[in-house]
Amino acid sequence: MIRYLIQRPIAILLIFTVLCVAGLAVIKKIPVSLLPDADVPEIVVRVNRPNAPAQVIEESILRTLRENLGNLDNLANMESTAADHYGIIHLSFEHGTRMDLTYITVNEKLDRLTNELPPDMPRPQVVRINTSDIPVIRIQVIPKDSSYCLDISALAENVLKRRLEQLKSVSLVDINGKRHGIITVEPDHAKLSVLGLNEHAISRAIAEASQELETLNIRDGQYRYFIKFRNALENGMPIGKIPIRLENGTVIPLERVARVQLETEEETGYHLYNGKEGLVITVQKQASGRMNELIQEVRKAVESFRQEYPQAEFRLTQDQTYLLDAGISNLRQDLLYGGALTILLLFAFLGNWASPFLMGISIPLSLIITFLLFYLLGISFNIISLSGLALGIGMLIDNSIVVLDSIARKRKSGMHMLDSCIAGTNDVVVPVISQVLTTVAVYAPLMLLGGMAGTLISDQAIGLTASLGTSLLVAFLLTPLLYKLLHKKAPATLKEDTVLYKWVSKGYHRMIDHILRHRRPYFAVTLLLMPIGFWIGLNIPATPLPDIEKRESLVFIDWNSPVDITENLRRSIALQKAIAPRCIETEAEVGVREFLLQQDAGTIRQTEVYFSCKDESGKLETDQQIRQWLAERYPKAVVRITDAPNAFTQLFSTSAPYIEARFRPSKGPNPPGTRPMAEVLNTFRHTDHSPGDGLLSESNITVSLDYLKMAIYGVQKPAIEDELHQLFGARPIASVRQAQSTQMVLLGTSLHTLEEKLTRSVPGADGNRYPIKSFITLNSGSQPKFITADKGGAYQSLLFGQKTKDLPALQRQLDELAAENRLSVDYHGQYFENGRRLRQLWIVFLLVLLLLYCILALQYESIVQPIVVMATIPLGITGGMLLLWLTSGTINTMSAIGFIVVLGLIVDDPILKVEVLNRLEKKYLAQGLAPDEELLKKMIHEAGDLCLKPLLMVSLTTSIALVPVLLTGGIGNDLQKPLAMVIIGGLTIGTFFTTWFTPLAYYYLVKWRMHKKANQTNERS
Predict the structure, then answer these.
(1) Residue 578: pLDDT above 90?
(2) Least enclosed by CB within 10 Å: which of 235, 276, 385, 621?
(3) Of 104, 130, 156, which residue sits at a domain end?
(4) Which residues cross the membrane (predicted)?
C-alpha cells in the first residue's frame, strides 16, 4: 500500500491540496460559539402568582404540579421552592435524556392540568436549559430624563428588540427593567356623595365603555362579511369623557367626578446601571451562528440606536467574547510561539534542514484538514474544542517524527531511497497507530461521564482525535513522499544527527550501562516512586476551576425584612453610589426579574448587584466595603458575595450546599404535645450549620373580620373585600388598547398610609357608611419565607459547610434528633454528589486501563507485555502531580484534562521501545542466538539508540509547545496553566524514569520467560 502510494506523487499531492483548499474554504462556515451546543438535562417550571403568599402557591399550585410531573421518564431529581408571588420547580434528568422530547412532554402535562390550577393564573412557564442560552452580551438602555421612562420601555419592546431579533444568528432577545403605564381614576368622594354616586358607578361605566362587542357574520348578495363593533375607547373617546347617568336622568362626563391620569405603575422589579434606573437587553446566540460576527452586528446596531434615539444612553456590558478570544489567542499563540520553539528544537537534534521542514509543515496541514472535519462533523469553534486543538498542536508532529526517523535510519544503512521510505514507514505503522489509539482510548470512556463534564469532554475529544487522525494521514502518506522528493544526497553523506544529539546519546548509553549494572536498586526505586503521585494528589487542594484573576463580583442581598420595592430601590441606589468610586461599572437587578429564561425570579425584598473593577485588589476591597456598608446600616440583611460567573465558570458552579439534612414529619398521627418541626430544628446546635430556606420566616399581617359586628350593622363581606382591593390596587377595572400595547385602568386613591386607607367606609343595611377598621382586627405575625419540597413532599432542612469533620457522628446525632421528634431525615448535597462522581471516575479509569490493555495486547499478541507498557502510567501521574505541587497548583477541571492527556502520551515511548525490542529478539532468534545476559544488554542499547531521538523529540516538542502558556498572562492562559504544568511534568519527569524502567522491566520479563522455559524443559526431561 505504501509503495503504491509513494509511486504516485502527483495524486497524493493533489489529494492533500484539495483537502487544504477545502479546509480553508469552510473555516468561515464553521459556527463560532462560547461553548458546545449541549442540552443541560434540566427543565425549570416557573409559576407567577402576584399577591399570593408562599403557602398558597405551595398548596394550590406546586403540590399539584409535583404530583403530575413526578412520573416523567428518566427524572433524576425534582426540587421546588415556593415564595411570595412566584414558585419554581427544578426538574433534573439522567444524562443522555432526549431533552427536546422531554420538553414537549412537560408542556403537554401542564396543558392537561389547566382545570386543576386556579382559573385566573397565567400558564406556568417552562424553560429548557441549554449552553447557548447564556447571554453573549448585555445592552444597557438608560433614559436621559426620568420622564422618558415609559417611552424608552415601549421603544425597547417594540423597536429595539425586534431590530436585534432580525440580526443573523440571534436566537433570543430578553429584557428586564421595563416600566409599564397605567391609567388611574381617582374618584372625588365629596362630589360622588352629593350626586348620589359611588365608586361602583364609575367602575361600571368604564367597564361598559371598554367592553368588547361580539363580531357579526352577515351576507350581502354573493358576498359575506365579518363586522366587528368597536367599543367607545377604541373609537378614540378619552376615559374622562365616558358618560355617567345620574338618578335624575342627567348625564355627566367622568372627569366631573374623578381625576384621570396616566401614571407609571409601581413595579415589582427595577434594573439599575451605575446607580441610574433603566433597562437591560440581553442577546442570546443561535447554536449554528458565528459569535464573533454576531457581536460585531450588535455593536453596529447599538451605534445606530445612539444616532436615532438620543433620548437614551446605550452601553454594552458583560461581553462574553473575551473567553472565546482567549481560546483563539491560545491557539494562535501555540501555533506561533510553540511551533517556533518546536522547529528550533528539531534543528537542535536533526543535522539537516529538510527533516525539520517536513515535520514542521505537518502542523498547519493537519490543522487545516482538521477544520474540514469540524465542518463535516458539525463541531463549532468554542473554548472547549479550541483547547483540544491547542493540546494537539504539540502532538501533531509526533507521528511524523517517528516515521522520518525510521526512514532516515533505513536510508543511512545504504537502502535505496524508495525502499527506505517504504520499509521505514512499514516498520512503524503498528506502533504509531497504537500510540494514536492509546491517546484516543483515554478519551472514549470519559465521554461516558455524566453531567456537563461528559458533555464538554466529548467536544474536546473529537477535536483532539480529528487533529491526531489527520496528523496520522500526513505522517503515513505525505511525509514519506516529501522525504523522497527533498532528500537527494547519497546515504554516505546523509547527516541526521547534530553534535548536541550525539552528546545526549552518549550520555544515555552511559546511563543505561550504569543502571544495568545496578538493576535491582534502580528497579526498586522506580517501583517505589509510582504510588508517590497518588499520595501527593491527596495533599493538593481541589477546586472546580484554576485560580484566575477575578475583577468582577456578584452580590446577592436579601434585606430580611418586609421592605417595599421602593425602599429596596432606594437602598440599592445608595449602595451603588457608595461603591462607584472603586468600580468601572455596576449593575443591579432590584426585586423581581422579568427575564424569560430567568430560573429564579427573585422577590421584592431581594437585590442582585454586579460590579467590575480595574484589578483583583480593587474587587476584594469593594467586597469588603459592601459587607461593612451593609453591616452598619442594615445588620439584618443576608448577603452573599461570589465571583461573577461567566459563560464557562457558571457551568461548573452549583448552589447546592455541601451537606443538607432534610426533615419531614413521619407518617402517622403525632402524639399530643409534639413540638413543631421548625421549633425542633431551630434549637439544634452545631459549629458549622445554617438553616435551610424552608426554615426562614418573614413578618406578615393577618386580618380577622368581626362577623358579629358586620351582622349588627348589615355590612356585607363582599363590600369590604371590594373596598380593600380598590384601596390596595389589586383589582383592575378595565384595559385600554392602544397602538401596540394594552394599559390597565385602576381605581386610585389619594390615601397613602395603612391607617388612612382603613378609614374608608363601606355601606351598611341602614344606608349609612361605616369605617372599614370598625370591622377588622390586624395582628402581626410571621409566615414561611420559602416552602421547599422535592419528590417526597415538603421538607425543612439544616445546611452544613465543608468544615464539618466527623460526618458519621453528625449523621448519628441528626438521626437521633429525628427519631426523638417523630421525624424522618435524608441527606443530600455536594459531599454525596462528589462521592458518586468519584466512584464514576474510578469506573471510567478502570475502563481506560482495560482499553489500553486490549489495544496493546492485540499489538504485541501477549498478555504480559502490555503490563510493562502500562506500568509507566503511574510514573507520568507522579511527574504531573509533583510539578503541580511545586507550583502550588490545584486539582481542577483543567489539570484533570492534563492527566488525561498524560495517560495517553506517557505510554508512547514504551510502546515503540517494546515493539523494537520484540523485533530485535525475533531477529536474533532467527540467527540462532538465545537472549542471554549480554545479548539482552546489547538489545537494550540498540533499542535505545533507535528510540532515543523519537522519544526526546516527541516528549520535548509536546512539552515545549505548552511553554508559551506558562510565560504569558490572560484569562485563557490562566485557565490552561494547570493543564500545561501537568503535561510538562508528566512528559519530562515521567519520561525520564521510563527511559530506564521500560528496558529493566523488559529485561526481567525476558529473564522470567527464559527461566520458565528452562523449568518446563527440565520437567519434560
Answers:
(1) yes
(2) 235
(3) 130
(4) 335-350, 357-377, 383-407, 428-449, 461-483, 521-538, 841-860, 867-887, 946-967, 979-1005
**Cα→Cα distances 724→184, 348, 759, 1007, Å:** 16, 89, 11, 97
Q: Do the Cβ atoms of 830 and 656 come closer than 8 Å?
A: yes
Distance CA 421, CA 407 (A): 5
Q: What is the CATH number of the domain that holds 60?
A: 3.30.70.1430
Which CATH number covers residue 365? 1.20.1640.10
Task: Report the alpha-carbon distance of residue 43 to residue 787 in Å, rounded.
Answer: 20
Cα angle 135-136-142, degrees, rounded to a multiple of 5:
75
Q: Same domain, yes or no, for 8 and 105?
A: no
Task: Supply the range of the domain harboring residue 675.
Answer: 659-737+763-827
Question: Is the same domain home to 786 and 904?
Answer: no
| Alpha-carbon distances, residue 287 vs 166, 290, 652, 721, 897 (angstroms) | 16, 8, 20, 51, 25
The answer to whether 26 and 375 have CB atoms below 8 angstroms apart is yes
Question: How many DSSP H helices and E strands does the chain contain?
Answer: 36, 30
Question: Alpha-carbon distance 646 to 648, whole Å?
Answer: 5
Residues 838 and 700 in one domain: no
The span from the CA of 480 to the CA of 574, in Å, is 72
Residues 564 and 622 in one domain: yes
- In the chain, how many domains are there? 4
The residues that bridge with 701 in the sheet, in sequence order, are 780
In angstroms, the CA 583 to CA 375 distance is 42
Pseudo-torsion of CA 859, 863, 868, 874, nearest 10°?
100
How sure is the predictor about 333, in pLDDT bands with cuts at 50, 70 and 90? Answer: low
162, part of any domain = no
Average pLDDT for 772-795: 84
217 burial type by CB count under 10 A (0-12 exposed, 13-18 middle, 19+ buried): exposed
**Regarding beta strands 137-143 and 638-643, do their DSSP bridges make them parallel or antiparallel, or are they unpaired?**
unpaired
Length, in residues, of the chain: 1021
Distance (Å, whole) CA 522 – CA 512: 11
> For the segment 800-813, what is each residue's pLDDT rounded down to a tens digit?
887 777 888 888 88
C-alpha cell at 550: 477575578
Question: Does residue 782 sit in the same domain as residue 905?
Answer: no
Q: Is residue 598 included in any domain, yes or no?
A: yes
Residue 534 makes CB contacts below 8 A (sequence gap 6+) with 874, 877, 881
Contact 565, 268 (CB under 8 A): yes
User: Closest by alpha carbon to 609, among 538, 557, 544, 679?
Assistant: 557
Please tell me whether residues 882 and 845 are part of one structural domain: yes
- 500 and 422 in contact (C-beta within 8 Å)? no
Separation of CA 256 from chain center:
60
- Are both 579 and 508 inside the same structural domain? no
Q: How many whole angstroms separate alpha carbon 79 and alpha carbon 71?
A: 14
340 Cβ neighbours under 8 A, 6+ residues apart = none
The Cα diameter of the chain in Å comes to 136
pLDDT in tens, 847-858: 888 888 888 888
Q: Residue 279: which pLDDT band, with cuts at 50, 70 and 90?
A: very high
Question: What's the pLDDT tens digit per position in 715-724?
Answer: 888 888 777 7
**Inside any domain, residue 805:** yes
**What rounded mean pLDDT belongs to the chain?**
80
Instruction: Check if the beta carbon of residue 45 is closer than 8 Å to that of residue 89.
Output: yes
Other C-beta atoms within 10 Å of 616: how many?
14
Q: Closest Cα to residue 283, out of 271, 296, 272, 274?
A: 296
> How many C-beta atoms lie closer than 10 Å to residue 181's C-beta?
17
566 and 704 in a common domain: no
Answer with the residue of higher pLDDT: 146 or 813: 813
**pLDDT for res 575:** 94
Q: Identify the CA nearest to 1000 among candidates 484, 474, 390, 521.
A: 521
916 within a domain of the structure (yes/no): yes
Domain finish residue from 827, 847, 862:
827
For the chain, give the percent of residues with pLDDT over 70: 84
> Is the pLDDT score of 415 beyond 60?
yes
> Of all residues in the chain, what percent carry a pLDDT higher than 90?
12
